[in-house]
Amino acid sequence: MWDNEKNKELVKILKAGGVVVMPTDTIYGIVASALDVSATNRVYEIRKRDSNKPCIILIGGLEDVQKFGIFLTEEQKNEIGKFQGPVSFVVDIEGERFAYLHRSTKTLAFRLPAREDLRNLLKETGPLIAPSANIEGQPPAKNIIEAKKYFGDQVNLYVDGGEIRGQASKVVRLHTDGSMEIFR
Predict the structure, then answer these.
(1) Could you give the count of Cα atoms lying within 13 Å of 155 in the half-sphere of its Cβ?
(2) What is the SS3 string spanning the chain?
(3) Residue 54 has pLDDT above 80, yes or no
(4) In Å, how far are 60, 78, 101, 145, 150 from 57, measured between CA atoms?
(5) What is the mean pLDDT of residues 116-144?
(6) Where does the YrdC-like domain lie (predicted)?
(7) Of 4, 180, 181, 173, whose CA–CA distance to 91 is shortest?
């Protein structure tokens, strides 16, 4: 799906604080660097997202959660390894440094995509927030034409992955003792 020229442009835009609509491992997402406050806030504005609702963060490897001051327990890692299909795991976060991400929930949700090409891209870009590509309350875009109707020229790049009719990921709350709750 990703070619070198597309990757170079995509990585450059995201590292510069840009916003991109692209296929994820589930559906089209409107993505930006999770480590860039202004880029994250721009996604909320463009998408008209509820400001109290945190976004799922795509990561290239489990070690990426450490960039947010989170250290997974062995029990949590074991649980993550048991899931089949797209699963986002929610864990506790301390402090206010990432309040722009946790939105007063004191938790962050991460997803490690199964697709190796996407994980490799994430290793280049760093963690990305990735809410679905739609205006809050509307159905997710199934293709770039629908995404452009939602966002027009408000995003820096559209990456066409054809028609995608996936579903949002399962969301699971992981506690430090390895116990869990399924949210979605």
Answers:
(1) 27
(2) CCCHHHHHHHHHHHHCCCCEEEECCCCEEEEEECCCHHHHHHHHHHHCCCCCCCCEEECCCHHHHHHHCCCCCHHHHHHHHHCCCCEEEEEECCCCCCHHHHCCCCEEEEECCCCHHHHHHHHHHCCEECCECCCCCCCCCCCHHHHHHHHHHHCCEECCCCCCCCCCCEEEEECCCCCEEECC
(3) yes
(4) 10, 20, 9, 24, 21
(5) 95
(6) 4-184
(7) 173
The pLDDT of residue 124: 94
The pairing of strands 20-23 and 28-33 is antiparallel
**Distances in whole angstroms, Cα of residue 11 to Cα of each of 16, 19, 29, 166:** 8, 11, 15, 24
Give the type of residue at 180.
Answer: M
Q: Model's pTM, two decimal places?
A: 0.93
pLDDT at res. 5: 64
For residue range 145-163, what is the model confidence (pLDDT) as tens digits?
999 999 999 999 999 999 9
* Torsion sign over Cα 168, 169, 170, 175: negative
Q: Is domain 4-182 annotated with CATH 3.90.870.10?
A: yes
Q: Is the pLDDT of residue 84 over 70?
A: no
CB atoms within 10 A of CB 54: 22
